[in-house]
Amino acid sequence: MKEITPLIICGGNGTRLWPISRTHSPKQFQRVGDAASLTFFQAAVERHSGEGFGTPLIVSSAKHGRTLHRQLRQIGRGADVILEPMGRNTGPAVLAAALKLAARDPDQLMLVVPADHVIEGDINTAIKAVQPGAEAGYIVTFGIKPRYAETGFGYITDGGPIIAHPNLREVERFVEKPPTRKARLLVESDIAYWASGISLFKAATIIEEYARYDPETLDHVVQALSAASETAEGLLLDGEAFGQADAEPTEKAVFEQTRRIALCRLDVEWSDVGSWTAMYGISNTDASGNVIQGDVISVESKNCMIRSETRLVTCVGLEDIIVVDTADALLVTKVGHCQSVKQVAEHLKSNERIEAEKHQRTDYEWGSIRQLVARDHMTLCTVTVKPGGTMRLDPAPGREAIVAAGEVLLTNGRTQARLRDGDRQTLCHQTRTTLSNPTDTAVEVLVFTIVLQEAPQDLASSARHAS
């Protein structure tokens, strides 16, 4: 049988998992558990690798290109990448991927996989079992047996067997995020399944169905792909054409209308991890029912999740509480109230708070950048460069570097200087600067940027990975 191309969809901001999820570093690029765990995105890539699966194709926002490549390098995986100039929901993203694959082979099978779900169990055996149905022209959507009456998920109801394909079922109907009473009735009916967001079909099949049900979006995505430009991070779709595509998920645009839809029932543990309560539910607990991640001391507390990213956190006498501590923000909430965290993120965004957009610290292979001060026309960051690491900075006016600890080799164009503790250097605003650490200990550099006429360039966005 043909190899299946995993299509990893990396959209969404994951505001319900603030403060670890931010606009510039959303949920899919965050670790599932402690510091040793994979990120959601890395886990999705690893899950559908090996025999029967080809090189993954990833669709992500252009602003996350560097992040996804960095995370791919961390797990030693390669991928083809399509970059969106703006988010248009899953429909146009899937369609762009299908068109790219169909140019090589219209019969190429695509497995659409959200990048931010957690799945435990042998899902690949079930996927391969329905491969003949997808090759025959079915759009296979995968359903999860519901464990409770969840109002935040869509449901698929089973319409009975498809005789020619024993592993597939007819789809009776789709139900989008029902109210509590209706969700309870669906669960009790024993024929309803949670919509997992995972689907399998040929590239030609989804293109044909878009031509039937939404030809205008198909035309816009074709134009966006034909006018796309190759970048270092991937194929960047044309913004003008892509922005005109209808911002609908594939489920609404095609699945709910087509007669080629089929259901595969999955027997796996699945969660879209849409809240901190859900994150607590998928994590391993200790004898007191606590989930402890990071530098945490828990005393006389039970059924809590306590996660620390950077410092010691101590909790005494807590019950059913979730504590998430990052370098620049602290969340304390009660289990069962976590869906409302989205309101906090929206409030921060409406007030243009930086905590809604990005983290104070950004990690790279060569080290990290931590923003200490941010004003209208001035920023102060501390840069840590690992032993043997090299940081590259795009040129920007009004920038100086001061070595706080260690020794660094600073290169500006043809000029090179070895700086030590307390040394200060103005950076060239016309050529790229590199900061290299030739020693066997980490070096810390303060980078100060001041511009009188315009806001200073963000240091993290101008930092480059050393080749």
UniProtKB/TrEMBL annotation:
InterPro entries tied to this protein: ManC/GMP-like_b-helix (IPR054566), Mannose-6P_isomerase_type2 (IPR051161), NTP_transferase_dom (IPR005835), Nucleotide-diphossugar_trans (IPR029044), RmlC-like_jellyroll (IPR014710), RmlC_Cupin_sf (IPR011051)
SUPFAM superfamilies, A to Z: Nucleotide-diphospho-sugar transferases (SSF53448), RmlC-like cupins (SSF51182)
Keywords: Isomerase, Nucleotidyltransferase, Transferase
Domain spans labelled MannoseP isomerase/GMP-like beta-helix: 294-348
GO MF: isomerase activity; mannose-1-phosphate guanylyltransferase (GTP) activity
One of the GO BP terms on file: GDP-mannose biosynthetic process
Pfam families: ManC_GMP_beta-helix, NTP_transferase
Residue ranges constituting the Nucleotidyl transferase domain according to the UniProt record: 6-287
Protein name (database record): Mannose-1-phosphate guanylyltransferase / mannose-6-phosphate isomerase
Taxonomic source organism: Marinovum algicola
Classification lineage: Bacteria, Pseudomonadati, Pseudomonadota, Alphaproteobacteria, Rhodobacterales
